[in-house]
Design brief:
6-stranded mixed β-sheet
Length: 263
C-alpha cells in the first residue's frame, strides 16, 4: 500500500504536504490536473486533518474557505480513470473523514465540544467521554436476472435516460441478504432467490459502503413503488438503456451480467 494511515502528524515538515482540499459543495481542488502540494502552514490547511502518508508524503484534508486563492475544482466522480486507482480511493477516504469531522464537532450526548483522539480516529467528548467514530452506512445493490434479462430501474434523481440496478440501505437487525430481498420487493414487487455476494465498493458520498450481489427472479410482476423509483423493467443485452459510469459498482454488476450472457 502506498498510503499509510496515521493519527499523529510528524513534528516537523521539511517539504510540502499532499493537500486534499474540498469546496463547500464537495468538489476537490485539482489545479493543473494534480493534487496541490502546499506548505504545512498554508492558510488553505487551517484546521486541516492529518490523514497519514502517501508514498512517504504527509497528507492533509481541509475545507477550502471562500477567500482562498485556489479556484480550480472538479467533481470527484469525474476523476475516475484519470488518476491512479489508489489515489482516487484516497480522495474518497479524505472526503469521508472531512465530512465526519465536520458533523461531529460536538458531543451528541451532552453537547460539549468534542476533541480529536490522540490514539485513534475518533472524536471524544471531554465531559462524558463518549467517542464517535467515522460513520459507515452499509447499502446493498443487486443485479437480478430472469433468463437472459436484467432487472433495471430508474430513480427520480437520475440524469435523463439513465437506468441502474436496484439498491438500498440496510436496516437495523437485517442481514445483507434480507435487505437485498426486501429492497427488490419494496421497489419492484418481485421475489428473488439464489442471492450471491459478488463485490463491494466504498462510496464516500458521503459515508456508505456498497455491497454488491446477484440474484435470480423467483416470481411476481413488476409493480413499482412510485415513492422509491420512477420506472423499472426487464432488459436484454441488445436493448440496454443508458448505463451508469464505469466508476460505479452498479456498472461492475451490469458488466458481470453481460459477461455471463456472452459465455
Amino acid at each position: 500500500m502506498k498510503f499509510i494511515p496515521a493519527i499523529i502528524p510528524p513534528e516537523s515538515f521539511s517539504d510540502s504536504v499532499l493537500s486534499f482540499l474540498f469546496s463547500a459543495d464537495g468538489k476537490i481542488a485539482i489545479p493543473n490536473g494534480l493534487l496541490p502540494r502546499l506548505p504545512a502552514d498554508s492558510p488553505e490547511l487551517y484546521q486541516g486533518t492529518y490523514l497519514g502518508t502517501y508514498e512517504g508524503t504527509p497528507c492533509y484534508v481541509a475545507r477550502v474557505q471562500p477567500d482562498s486563492s485556489i479556484d480550480s475544482f472538479e467533481e470527484v466522480r469525474g476523476l475516475f480513470s484519470s488518476i491512479p486507482d489508489e489515489l482516487y480511493s484516497l480522495i474518497g477516504y479524505a472526503s469521508q473523514i472531512l465530512t465526519w469531522r465536520e458533523n461531529h464537532r460536538f458531543c451528541s450526548r451532552c453537547g460539549t465540544k468534542a476533541e480529536p483522539s490522540d490514539t485513534e480516529r475518533a472524536m471524544v467528548c471531554p465531559s462524558c467521554k463518549l467517542a464517535n467514530y467515522p460513520r459507515i452506512s452499509p447499502s446493498m445493490i443487486v443485479a437480478v436476472t430472469r433468463g437472459n434479462e436484467l432487472l433495471m430501474a430508474r430513480g427520480h434523481h437520475f440524469p435523463p435516460g439513465l437506468y441502474s440496478v436496484v439498491a438500498g440501505f440496510v436496516e437495523p437487525g437485517e442481514t445483507l441478504e434480507q435487505c437485498v430481498a426486501r429492497e427488490v420487493m419494496e421497489e419492484t414487487g418481485l421475489k428473488i432467490k439464489n442471492i450471491q455476494y459478488l463485490t463491494s465498493q466504498p462510496w464516500p458520498f458521503p459515508h456508505s459502503i456498497m455491497i454488491g450481489f446477484k440474484a435470480d427472479y423467483a416470481g411476481g410482476e413488476i409493480r413499482i413503488d412510485p415513492k422509491e423509483i420512477e420506472d423499472a423493467g426487464w432488459y436484454t443485452p441488445d436493448d440496454l438503456p443508458q448505463l451508469p459510469s464505469k466508476a460505479t459498482i452498479a456498472r461492475k454488476l451490469i458488466d458481470d451480467y453481460l459477461a455471463r450472457q456472452s459465455r
